[in-house]
Amino acid sequence: MMEPKEFGLNDVVEMKKQHPCGTNRWKIIRMGMDIRIKCEGCGHSVMIPRREFSRKMKKVLVKHEE
């Protein structure tokens, strides 16, 4: 059984596909119906629907401490 993927604001996550710039570290900078993530390598940010994000995310690399 797979545990639910827990992610929160300011967490650094790894996506299944890496960014064209060569990095696969993304920081969650906005959460809502859509999730905005920012590439840690080049600073490019993308907005993706939450469902799509959950599907494309591989794992949380750095958990943001409250």
Brief overview, please?
This protein has 66 residues and is mainly β.
Characterization of this structure:
This protein has 66 residues and is mainly beta. It has one domain (12-61). Helices cover 11% and strands 39% of the residues. The chain contains one helix and five strands; from the N terminus they run ββββαβ. A five-stranded antiparallel sheet has the order 4-3-2-1-5. β2 (26-30) and β3 form a beta hairpin. The longest helix is centred in the last third of the chain and has 7 residues, at 50-56. It is globular, with a radius of gyration of 11 Å.
Features:
mainly beta; 66 residues; 5 strands; 5-stranded antiparallel beta sheet
Q: How does the helix and strand content classify structurally?
A: mainly beta
Overall spatial form: globular
Number of domains: 1
Rounded mean pLDDT is 89
Give the strand tally.
5
Would you identify the regions where 5 or more consecutive residues have pLDDT less than 50? none
Biggest β-sheet strands, sense, barrel: 5 strands, antiparallel
Q: Kindly provide the radius of gyration, computed on alpha-carbon positions and rounded to a whole number of angstroms.
A: 11 Å
SSE ordering: EEEEHE
Helix content: 10-25%
Q: Alpha-carbon distance between the termini?
A: 28 Å
Percentage of β-strand residues: 35-45%
Strand order of the largest sheet: 4-3-2-1-5
Question: Please, how many helices?
Answer: 1
Protein name: DUF951 domain-containing protein
Pfam family, one: DUF951
Organism: Heyndrickxia sporothermodurans
InterPro entries: DUF951
